[in-house]
Every structure is written in structure tokens, then in C-alpha cells.
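Good morning C.,

I know you're traveling, so I'll keep this short. The sequence:
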Amino acid sequence: KLLEMERPRVRPKFAPTAWLAAAVEEAQKEVARLTEPAWRRARVLQALLEAGGTLGMADLCAVASCPRETVRAMVKKAILKMDEAGQPVSLALGREQVEQLIRDAARGPKGGQAGALAALIAQAGPLELAELHKIAGASRANLRALARKGLVGLGEREVWRTPRARLPLLKKAPIFTPRQEQAWQEIQKELATGSKVVLLHGVTGSGKTEIYIRALGEVGRQGRQGIVMVPEIALTPQTIQRFVSRFPGRVAVLHSRLSLGEQFDEWRRARDGLVDVVIGPRSAIFAPLPRLGLIVIDEEHEWTYKQQEHSPRYHARDVALKLAELTGALVILGSATPDIATYQRAKEGEFKLLELPERIKVAGREAGDRRGTATFILCRDCGYVVRCKRCAVPLAYHQMEDDLVCHQCNYRTLVMDQCPKCWSRRIRYFGLGTQKVEEEVRKAYPQARVLRWDWDVTRGKDAHERILDQFLRHQADILIGTQMIAKGLDLPLVTLVGVISADTALHLPDFRTGERTYQLLTQVAGRAGRSLLGGKVIIQTYNPEHYAVQAARDQDYGAFFRKELAYRGEHGYPPYNQLARLVYAHPVEEKGRAESERLSRALRQRVSQLGLANCQVLGPAPAYVSRLRGRYRWQLVVRAEDVHPLLSETPIPPGWVVDVDPVSLL
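The C-alpha cells, ready to paste straight into the viewer:
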């Protein structure tokens, strides 16, 4: 059912097409018959030009290899002129006009027919009518005339809409390092059985992608197919480029920035077994490959693999593990900063752990954390913060549009110069978004070429590709962006990375804040130093003593893992227990509170009835974003070794959103 849900609902695209319906020899004879009169006239004009504009009739016919009738016909059309005695022959037009006539000599109805036939002979296959017109100037009338002669067939051909045509190809595969070769040998053994999940823990720039490509090649030789998932659409173009160059014509791409037509055609190519590799973010896991042999999840720790906005609230990693179990495929989970639970499963032997602790070569330059110019606006007299009327979150100031924007519901309002509560004019802009960073960078380095990469400038279909291409071609010196550019990109010319307010997430009410901070800092640091130029990373922080920041500074995942696991164990968080988050929203605050309290009592009562000793129901409490799009939000959290016995035995009323294994409690 999920596979069918992901199928785009559009129709195939067809284009008028022509193809050669006669033998090549017959078509070539027709081309000669059609073009000979025109070329005879062109030879006459060329001979006169080379002779200075005048020649005797006998000499002209000899040089141009044409009969006298050709010359006389051209005289009647006022292209040539002769004296009364028929001697000599000269041009009746200026040189520029004559040269144009020579260029146009093979055109016209017969010339269009000849050009179409010649193009179809050269193509040795069907050509769209639009392409024939572009190549040979052939009109539909020309082609219909050829069809009546039985020389050309006319019809329609399905057109595959593909997003890959504009991508350049990359160089051939590099030679593996000893560490890569060792990891590859282990993966090759697993490919023979498909019995295990492999966690490929490799530092940034250690060559994980090359191992993915080698594994896909092996799967292809076995007659099977593979899926490669990336966490962000922004990462897809560069990933596509690397895989398309190694599997030309055998890669399909699936993501939401494609047109519906492109999505539909890529989906059908996958379903019909016409590709070996499917690449894309979360929903690519549902690609209908009939011979699945390998699933690669790059940056497996990323929260974007979880569908949070609507049901079904699946995690692509969990879907991949189940799909592999059903199909016998191998799963490779790759990351420089694995999810704590994933790494724990690998340490316990449930997954096969392979390590790539050394870089091959090194890159990166990005900066930034938040969109907008200022994160929030505050009155310095009364402390009033300008908030969205529907979502109860601070409005961000966007200088380019000169307005205040809610990043939850996109509510916009005019900038104010007085506090609406106390009427003070002491309004101050706090925080530092990407627009403000860009403004300050341009002031400090007016000679530098600056690019900004955030959600506000990447709404167009190919926006990510254009920005990435500009930066890779060194058409910009400084790239400023949000967290989307902190991971996965290979930027060989980058020698400096700056991270602004690196510890902002540490103070959010979520147990994963330490892990998120460590992952972000480690990933963004990995953009620097990917070439012989070397690199440096500068981190701005108010908490340099925090273990996540220190471990990121030292690039020490082991130290972070041990401290984070101890913290999780002390408080009963995953992987030691499972969580479920239940959220209820209502336009009337008190009704929302009452409903959440009613369900919390029902859940606690059922815990007691079922004798679930280690099961806790936390809340109700207002959600972190307590009001969203005009609705007040309340949440409950269930914590247990297994939340399913409680949830399956408790009726959950309509209106509640149940998220098992949430990636965030915010």
C-alpha cells in the first residue's frame, strides 16, 4: 500500500516522432534526387563569385557541372543576367544576396524533405518532429510528403522526463586505501549472504561514498538493484553526479523538488526494472524495485529520515531494515556521527561495525545557523517579544523583505518601531540569522563574492543545484547558510569553516540536544580541509566545557558516545527505553487541556490494570510550540521498555497524533 501511495498521479508524456520506413539505400537515392537541382544552382553561383562575377556560358556550365537549362532558369528568375547574344553570364544580385542564396540553396519544400531523410539516416532511429525541424528545417508538410512516398513513418513516442541530463560526469573510480579495502572485503562477504546490517562509521572525507558505489556495482553484477538515501534534497545533486558518472543511464532520482512528470517517469523506470540505482531522500525507500539487493542510508543519524508532518509517521531507517528482512537485501548505514541507538546496536553485535577512522582528502566552508536577519524582537523597557498571533512563537525579522515572519505558518506583518504593549521606542533586534550574517560579511569583506544558502533562497526547483554549482566553480568566496549545508557536501576548495552560536540547541527541552550539537559541529567541521590546502574550523560557543562541544573539537566520537550513553541511562532515555509522543491540538486552550488530562488519566489507569511496572506517562504539558496555526497544543510522553502494549490496549480518541520513537520532543 505504501508503494502505491508514493506513486505520482500523472500521465505519460508523448511526442510526435518520425522514423525511417524505407531501406537506407532507397532513402539515400531520394536525398540525391531532391537535392541535386538546388545544389546545381548553388554551384553556378559559387563559380561566378570565384570568377569575379562574369563567365562565358560554356565555361560556366563546365565549372559548375550543370546543363545550360539551369543557367537559363536562373536568368528568368533574375538571379543571373546575359546579353542578347547569350554571352557572357553575370550575377544580377549583390555579393551578400548571392552568398545568402548559396546558404539557402538546399532549403525549401524539397530541401526540408532531403534534410529530414538525411537526419533520419544518420540517427538510425526515431527522432522527434521538433528535433527534426531544429536539425534540418523540416516541416510537418515535408514529413507528410515523405510518408506518402513510403519513406518515413509518423507516430508518437513516449518521452522520459529526466532530471539528470544537465549533470556533468566525474572522473573514474579512485584506488581504495588499505582501510577502505578492508571495509570493502567485509561488505563483500555480507553481500553474498545479505544476513547482516552494516554500520559504516567513517570520519568525514574517509571515502564512504566510494564504498557505496563499489557495493552497488557488485549488486548490479548479481542482477540486483540498490537504493541510496540522502537526508536532504540539497545533497541530492552532488550525490547524483557521483553515481550517474559510474552507472550512466542506470540511475533514477526521486525527490519532491522534481516535477510530477519527472517523478512519475522515474517511478516507472524503477518499477519496470530499467534502472540499477534509485537515489533520493526519505521517500526513496518506497521505490518499487523488483530485484532489491542493497539499501544504503547515508548520514543515517539525520532526523529528516523520520516522517513527522503527517501519517504514516515512519522512520526510513526502520522501513529499510524491515524491507531488507523481507527481500534479503543488505543494509549499509553510513555516518561520521552515528545515532546513539544505532551505534549501541552495533557495539552489541546486532549490526556489523566497520570503522574508517582516517580521511583520504579534505574541504569545506560554510557558516550560519538560522534564517532571517534577527531571531526575535524585544522591547528593552517591558520585555515584550513580538510573537505570531497563531503560533505563539517569536517572529523573525527579514531585512530584505523588511517584514516580520513566522517560520512555522509563514504569517507576515509590518515592522514596528514602537512596542505595542508599553509604546516604548526602545525596540531591539536579537539573534543572528543568515541574512544578518550576510550583511555583516559584506561590510567586513566588500571585495568578497558572497552566496547565501537557506530555505528562503532555495524555493525554486533547481535552486540547490545552482547555488552548489556556483560555489564549486569558485564563483563565490564565502558561503553562508543554515544547517542544511553542514553535512554531506564535498567542497574541495574550502579551507575555513565558521560556526556561529554553536551551542544554541544545547538549551532546548529535548534529551537529544547534546547529540544534535555534537553531530552538527562534527559534520560542519568536515567541510573544511578536504584538499591539500588544509583547513581550519572556528566555533563560537558560550559552553566550551560541555562534553558535546569538547568531543566535537577533538573529533572523538568514542568519548562523546560514552558520556551520552551514561546520561541516557541515568534518565531512562533511548536506547534504554522507548518513547511515544502524543500531541493534541484545539482552538480553545481549556478544551485542549481538559482532553489531554482525560487521556493521561486513562493511560495511567491502563498502566495499573496491565501491570506495566516500568511504564511511565509524563504530562500533560504544553508543547514546546504551545500554539501553532491558531491551535493550542498539549503533549503526553509515554516511556517504557516497549510502549506498544499500553498504546495498543488503550483507545486513542480522534484528534490525537501518536508518534512512536519521536526524533524530537519539541
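Safe travels,
E.
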